[in-house]
Structure formats: C-alpha cells, structure tokens
Design goal:
It is a single chain. With about 130 residues, this protein is an alpha+beta fold. About 20% of the residues lie in helices and about 45% in strands. Strands 1, 2, 3, 4, 5, 6, 7, 8 and 9 form a nine-stranded mixed beta sheet that branches. The two termini are about 15 Å apart. The model has no long low-confidence stretch (mean pLDDT about 95).
Amino acid sequence: MPTLKIHHIGYLVKNIEKAKQTFKALGYVVEQDTVHDGIRKVDICFLVKDGYRVELVSPVSVDSVVSGLLKKYKNTPYHICYEAEDPEEACQELTSNGFIAIDTPTPAPALGGRRVVFLTSPVIGMVELIY
C-alpha cells in the first residue's frame, strides 16, 4: 500500500462563519480563508492547530453534494483527506481493499485546483484522496 499522509479532517457545518469563530476560540488559526467551490456547491475554509488541519465545509444550496449529509448528521467531522506520492496507485489499492469511489477526480478550488476523489468504505465511512 502506498504511504498515505493525512492532509485534513473534513468538518461539515451549517454556518461556516460561526464555526470558524468557534474553532478560533479553541486556538485554531485560519490557514486559508473561505473559498467557494462551485462544482460541489460548498464554501470551504481551512484552519490549523498543533499540526492538525481542519476543513470546514458548508453547503451553499439545497442541491450541494453535502446538503443531505448535513440534514442527517448535523455539524460533524465526516471525512479524512489523504495525500499520496502516487494517488493513482493509492486509489487502486483502496478500491482493491473494499473502498468504492463515489465520484471521479475533480478539481478542488480550495486546494489550488488539485484534483480530489471521494471514496467510501462500509466499515469506516468516507475518505478523500488528493491527486
């Protein structure tokens, strides 16, 4: 299995500005201010603390890719994002180990246009892989 390095924990929130202020009260620092992702219809903000990065994700419309998740789970961590030296190999390895790709690699504006793909496991839930 290729080495996977954790990039961030994705945190689903209803109100990104309130969530940002609450994380700042916990000592997090805004690493990248809010970016709109029109492909996924979400707003995203990265914050860091003690070497950990949190990605706040908030839907901006009812047909956002995460609107249903927010209704079901409310404000909650919902995915771990990984980087790999060889993301194609990592994706193949994950799928051979029971993960199912739920989309195709698509540009992510909050990551400078780098592509990401989301995969899900019936055992652990959703992960994101950066290309």
